[in-house]
Write a structure and sequence with these properties.
21 strands, transferase, alpha/beta, 489 residues, six-stranded parallel β-sheet, globular, 37% helix, TIM Barrel, nicotinate phosphoribosyltransferase, seven-stranded antiparallel β-sheet
Length: 489
């Protein structure tokens, strides 16, 4: 099956904040458009008070960058913009510059489905200053949301303990694009299917679903509704049993399930969407087993999230499949990831990289300067630490010391000879894609494999153990010196 790529094929160059364009114009006026720069996109805290984050959204970024251009309608719109004086906001020569501009940046990024942590770059963009600047808003828009949803999905699937999690939040999602992006990210995070048929078509995600309460209510009796559905869809019968009374609904589902058996078909299961899910799921399991339907699934829904799923597991609820909607696709308990995009270095007139630093009264808001990469270390196959380092200063001959960027008293010595990998992978070189885009099923498998390489203490829902991420010693010293220099100006 051919899966659609380049979801956004038209111009989306104006999907940006206005200040990106005013800065671009000022760069142009200052003769700085082609000055080479490096920006890093990163976040400062794991979402949901958790211990990890799942990177997602890179495929959308690739689409965006491959189609990054200002078409004639964009240029005409900008040309007609007026300042407060009534004069054109931008000179025609600048508009023409935008029209002729060709995307030429280098982009390195962590692959989708990778477990990531605060302060480490998810994406590093290197190229002409104006192009790097213009990418800020769209990259943040894409990665903030999909990373958030993939992380939420991973937390829910971990709580479910390997049982299927169905994403069906389309009707509650924030608009059409929010729904599509959420379905994609939820699958990457670990969901087994989606109710969103368009997401199934566009991304190759398995789709699932049977019927709603309205189907039952459109018939005179619940039994008649079940029989009619079984006649129409004999291979897709998960009967929703709580429209009127769950016990009676289970009895009716069993009756129709036996009729399906007589036709050589099997009832897939029952769904419970209200009430005491632990109590009714155990009732359902007992009744189904007594009737010989040992393979029939018990599906539960009703505003579930990872905490309720975990609680129901502790209560030994007989639930095989979890339907999650609103709390997943809206990231109900944290509406934004809060990733930022900061200038890290710029080339001077002699061609040397000059590290750049934003100073703040809040330590957490001081960015990490320089041309960075991230190396992950493993001990006996288990992730043990991430090191942020300057690419031209890493020394593998001795075990590095890493220092927490927020609390310098937290330090960790990395042993020599540990297995390791670089997390930032080449995606674009000089504007040309060099990365082989994996299918979404491969990305989902990467999420699962990545999580399996982390100790369970980092994956706890509440009060997780903090995974060590630090600056290599020379980078820490560079940052400290730049902060002191800035504060003494």
């Amino acid at each position: 099956m051919k899966i659609t790529k380049d979801l956004y094929q038209g111009s989306l160059a104006l999907l940006t904040d206005f200040y990106q364009l005013t800065m671009a114009y000022a760069y142009w006026k200052s003769g700085k458009t082609e000055q080479e720069a490096v920006f890093n996109l990163f976040f400062r805290k794991n979402p949901f008070q958790g211990g990890f984050t799942i990177a997602a959204g890179l495929d959308y970024v690739i689409d965006y960058c491959r189609n990054f251009k200002y078409d004639q309608n964009d240029l005409d719109y900008l040309r007609n913009m007026k300042g407060k004086s009534g004069e054109p906001m931008f000179e025609d020569a600048f508009i023409n510059y935008l029209g002729d501009m060709k995307f030429s940046c280098d982009i390195d990024a962590v692959e989708e489905g990778t477990v990531v942590f605060p302060n480490t770059p998810l994406i590093r963009v290197k190229g002409p200053l104006v192009q790097c600047q213009l990418l800020e808003t769209p990259l943040l828009n894409i990665l903030n949301f999909q990373t958030l949803i993939a992380t939420k999905a991973a937390r829910i699937t971990l709580a479910a303990g390997g049982e299927d999690v169905l994403e069906f939040g389309l009707r509650r999602a924030q608009g059409i694009d929010g729904a599509l992006a959420a379905s994609r990210a939820a699958y990457i995070g670990g969901c087994s299917s989606t109710s969103n048929v368009m997401a199934g078509k566009l991304f190759g995600i398995p789709v699932s679903g049977t019927h709603a309460h309205s189907w039952i209510m459109s018939f005179d009796t619940e039994l008649e509704a079940f029989e009619a559905y079984a006649e129409a869809m004999p291979d897709n019968c998960v009967f929703l049993v709580d429209t009127y009374d769950t016990y009676t609904g289970l009895l009716n589902a069993i009756k129709v399930g036996k009729k399906l058996q007589e036709r050589g078909k099997q009832m897939v299961g029952v769904r419970i969407d209200s009430g005491d899910l632990a109590y009714y799921s155990n009732m359902a399991r007992e009744m189904l087993d007594s009737a010989g339907f040992h393979e029939a699934k018990v599906v539960a829904s009703n505003d579930l999230d990872e905490y309720l799923v975990f609680s129901l597991k502790v209560q030994e609820a007989s639930i095989n499949v979890w339907g999650i909607g609103t709390k997943l696709v809206t990231a109900y308990d944290q509406p934004a990831l809060g990733a930022v995009y900061k200038l890290a270095a710029i080339k001077d007139q002699q061609g040397n990289w000059e590290p750049k630093l934003k100073v703040s009264q809040q330590t957490i808001k001081i960015n990490i300067p320089g041309f960075q990469n991230v190396r992950r270390y493993y001990r006996k196959g288990v992730a043990s630490a991430d090191m942020i380092f300057l690419e031209d200063q890493q020394n593998e001959e001795k075990g590095p010391l890493i220092i927490d960027p927020i609390d310098p008293t937290k330090r960790k010595k990395i042993d020599i000879g540990l297995e390791s990998e670089l997390l930032l992978k080449p995606i674009f070189r000089h504007g040309e894609k060099v990365y082989a885009r994996p299918e979404i099923h491969e990305i989902k498998n990467r999420t699962k494999a990545n999580l399996e390489r982390f100790d369970k203490a980092h994956k706890r829902l509440v009060n997780p153990h903090i995974y060590p991420v630090g600056l290599e010693e020379s980078l820490f010293n560079l940052k400290t010196n730049l902060v002191l220099k800035a504060k003494n100006q």
